[in-house]
Amino acid sequence: MILFPAIDIRKGRCVRLIQGDFNRETIFAENPAEQALKWEKAGSSFIHVVDLDAAQKGTAGNEDAVVGILRAVSIPVQVGGGIRGIEDIEKKLSLGAARVILGTAAMKNPDLVKTAVRLYGERIVVGVDSKGGCVAVEGWGKTSAVESTAFCATMRDMGVRTVVYTDIAKDGTMTGPNLSATKKIVDLGGIDVIASGGVASLSDLYALEKIGVCGAVVGKALYNGALDLKQAVDVFERTRMKGVFCELC
To answer: Fewer CB within 10 A of the end CB, N or C, for the chain?
Structure first.
């Protein structure tokens, strides 16, 4: 299982939100590139970056900060937030992103997903942000009527190889991941699941590993010291660079 330390960027700084609420923000670092280097030095093999301003507004919000991260580290980075078209995907990849995460765009424009997968294959990841069991969009500000598990199945059938599944109610709370909802997606088969939201301890990571996820995004627990990244990497990435990640690493 690969661990993805999270860097969420708002107004140029590393922040963590609680349940996606922009009014419940904690600033953890002023320089995202320096933070990314810390995660790399701690042994991370992949970094998860989201431009929160872009996700909320649908336009580039922190491009300089994202570029700074991509230039600072030598490990692969997956980038999401505000990506709405092929041009946005091409730009992120050309800047050095290993993978691009489609969120709102995947929900609103399935044809974009088909085209992106055809052109870029496994470098396209779909972010499925779930609120009350349904897919949320536009920086988690709106909730659709589309059930999250069904949406993951649709993405799989379109050729998507990897989804990042986030339970919004768990995000930033450090109350443990939503194992039952995550397992439903894993049990679909044919798609790799990266779990996100609520991870607070090694026990949470063991529980996610047990249900078969291929990766876990970890945020607040790393920033406040509840979880040591080096220790977690040593435990869960003893056999590294396998499966979906080998070509990108």
So the answer is: C
